[in-house]
UniProtKB/TrEMBL annotation:
Protein residues bound to Zn(2+) 2: C491, C494, C509, C512
CDD domains: DEXHc_priA (cd17929)
Organism, as annotated: Gimesia aquarii
Stretches the record annotates as Disordered: 1-21
Protein name: Replication restart protein PriA
Cofactor comment text: Binds 2 zinc ions per subunit.
Domain of life: Bacteria
Phylogenetic lineage: Bacteria, Pseudomonadati, Planctomycetota, Planctomycetia, Planctomycetales
Reaction catalyzed: ATP + H2O = ADP + phosphate + H(+); Couples ATP hydrolysis with the unwinding of duplex DNA by translocating in the 3'-5' direction
GO BP terms in the entry: DNA recombination; DNA replication initiation; DNA replication, synthesis of primer; double-strand break repair
Helicase ATP-binding domain residues: 255-420
Family, as annotated: Belongs to the helicase family. PriA subfamily.
Gene name in the database record: priA
Amino acid sequence: MSKPKQRSLFEEDELPENPMPWERESAQGLYLAQIVLNRPVDRVFHYLVPESMRSVLRAGYRVRVPFGRGNQFVAAYCVGVGPADENQPSIRLKAVEAILDNRPLFNAKMLKLTRWIADRYLCSWGQVLECVVPAGVKNQAGTRLVTVFELITAVPRAENEVAEVISKLPAKQRAVFDVLKSANKPLTLDELTQAANCGSGPVQSLKKKSLIRSLQKRVSQFSNGDEAAYAGIKKEDDLQLNIDQRRALDQLLSAIRGKEGSTFVLHGVTGSGKTEVYIQAIREVVSYGQQAIVLVPEISLTPQAIQRFRSRFDSVAVLHSHLSDSDRHYHWQNIAAGKVQVIVGARSAVFAPAPHLGLIIIDEEHETSFKQETAPRYHAREVARKRSELEGVPLILGSATPTLNSWLRVIEKKDTLISMPNRVNNLAMPGVNIIDVRNDARIRRNESIGRVLHTGMQHALEAGGQVILFLNLRGYSPALWCKGCGNSVTCPHCEISLTWHRDKNLAVCHSCEFSSQPPKQCPRCGAPGLRFVGAGTQRLEEEVRAKFPGYSCKRMDSDTMRGVGSHAKVLNAFAAGDVDILLGTQMIAKGLDFPNVTLVGVVDADTMLHQPDLFASERTFQLIAQVAGRTGRGMQGGRVFVQTASPAEPAIVKAAEHDFLGFSQLELGHRKEMNAPPYSHFARVILRGPQEERVQDFARQLAQILSDAASEKQLDVQILGPAPAPIIRLKKYFRYHFQLAAANVEAILQLWNEITDKLPREKAIEYIIDVDPVNMR
């Protein structure tokens, strides 16, 4: 008897990049599954497919397989199924033990995309697949197993014999039988006994007579509180577009109708109406029965942003960090079933299983939160670019301050620029005043609000306006300083200054969350009288309340916004005018649109500028420009005060002039001279271990191996370092790093793949590689 022909999820023209050669029938008659595991080893394992699974198992399913010497069962991913090649070695293979899902979690294009991510970011395919599927989907949160009963339609007895057994059934057993027959679907015990008006006895008797059988069925119990929270939002009509918006939309609609997999950089100043262009482009996509994915930074997932989409579309799934596993599973199922028109979410929403994808949008594309810091260390922008290519749909990258990476692609004509240089209703950009605080007496007294900013705030509040203050440091004081030895008190596990949180009277490490009572004397020299130096958002709040006692003030940072709905509560109060002064960290720097905000104050523009980071200047410019964009959105206009001790710094000057083109030209010139990104690619290798000398020696050894391999293979890759990481000790481990630099990323990937199996192992020392890093600390 011939074996059943197993149809793979891959079509002939959609084979994965590394398929097994299973085109011919196997002489051995074996069926094999290609399996990858969530392990840092990029290898495909082969398992036998039992006869009972051959008609079901396809690429895209999760399975349970025995793995390792102890044959422990682990969850894994099937990436291909088919008859074994005739050249397959005759070895004893383990078999797939179980299929874990009712339907595949990945289609062919998603498997291709995840394979590309594994290759591009030098991690295993299994790690990528594990990252793509939310935990709530894997553990089927929001569902439960119930026992149901159904008729046995094929019994090993003659038909007349079955009829005779049925005719002799007692009344209650016959009632149960008739209920199941008329229902024509499995029923639970409660449903069955209630409909038949009997107890469980007749049901068990029918089981013994082999007329019915019981089986386990998974049923949903989704409450979906996330949907309920936005149930009262009223539907709104599309807004009238201005000339810039209409021109931008026309370009996008042309690409959508032409099914182009091209990338557009939508460069629009803050307040230019980019969101309305997104919405009307999505409207076109939805009219075709297609879906759109909108990626936003997690901190921009505010009720205000969510409401904009929910007020325009019938079905919107919002994916954010506060969702329960049950809600994530609920949204995943609805998205995969094509029931959701718009998927709005943070970085991981790029993997949303939309079967009818028509458009991808990344708003605030410059945000560093789009880069994942743990394996797989992908960048959502590059993943979206690849998915756009595979799906044949447009990608929109929107920002008032695009990354220099995206801007260079525009200059080189690889991506298409759409420009929106004016605010809606022809509102003027806010005037930005750079305040040199080096000679400010109040700043010298260790106050946060200088004389000019204080006066500006007073005038704005007295005129009925609202104020936003930005300070990118949380806590009360960011350093505990010893005047005896001149050192700050650092975390015992990290080379980072402890921050004093006055509300809890704790000195806290913002990297490992170590906390303790503030020491009464210096741990290094023993001198008493430590000073609390600098100001964080807690101290700023205290100062604001003291200087403006008649006005309501709220603070937004990761210390105050821990509870579910805390963002919404504060922002709704600010929108209603119940809060006069809103202060906080980056979460208030973008995505907010409040017309009554007439003054924005950047309390300390230097906090990011002097970091040991190649991208410090670019990020300073972006941050100031974005914060400045929160004001001047109403008819009364607005002003921005930027306090700095570096008033001539080009990033600050250009941000104050709203001159992105001037800044990008200047900064790209510096980068080109240094042959730094975006004119080259970096990959950062970070090593850590408990003994500094051994980590340093091992880093040198690894760097030398890579340097020798680059010479041998004639690959134009430079090895920069090794050197101590900017934060040399983090979470009890000493850290060293070095970088691989090349004109194109393919050379780096080739070099690493050439030597990855030859790299030595050192006990207690770990290392990772981060391709195109955005965090250099």
